[in-house]
Every structure is written in C-alpha cells, then in structure tokens.
Hints:
The protein has helices spanning 4-10, 29-38, 41-57, 72-83, and strands spanning 66-68, 88-90. It has 91 residues and is mainly alpha-helical.
Amino acid sequence: MGGAPADLAREGFAALAIDLYNGQVTADATVARQLVGSIKPEEADATLAAWIPWLGAHPTASGKLGAMGWCMGGAWSLNAAITQPLDAAVI
Length: 91
C-alpha cells in the first residue's frame, strides 16, 4: 500500500497522515462529502495541535515540519500552517 506518507518516508522524511474523520473511511462519494461536512473545526484544530508536535519529537524527525494536502486536506494544511509552528505547507 502506498500513499503520500509512505512515499515521503521512503525519501527519508518522517510523515504522518492525520485522521480528521475519527477512524471512518469510505469509497462512496456521498459518504465522503458527509464526512467532510462532519469535521468540527475546533476538534480538527486540537487534533492537529496534538499530532504535529508529536511528529516533530519523533526520533526519525529532522526538526523541520510541514503539512501537505489536496482539496479539503489543502485547506487543513493551510490552517495548520497558520496555527502551528510549521516550516512549510503545500496546498
């Protein structure tokens, strides 16, 4: 199984996919839209605020932190860059 975190890790970056859906997954577009709409900004901010420093303190981390996302994830990447001490953001 691949994906951005695995690809980044293979390139030497410490990577983490943060779950803003509380463990729920779907391949159904309608359900996916519902999941996006169910995100509570305060809870998502708290989730990012907890996991970003955790990754920064991980033994494999380089000391530089960034966020990346596409579409809804891009919006949260921007939010993380505004609210967290990140070195970079990809939107």
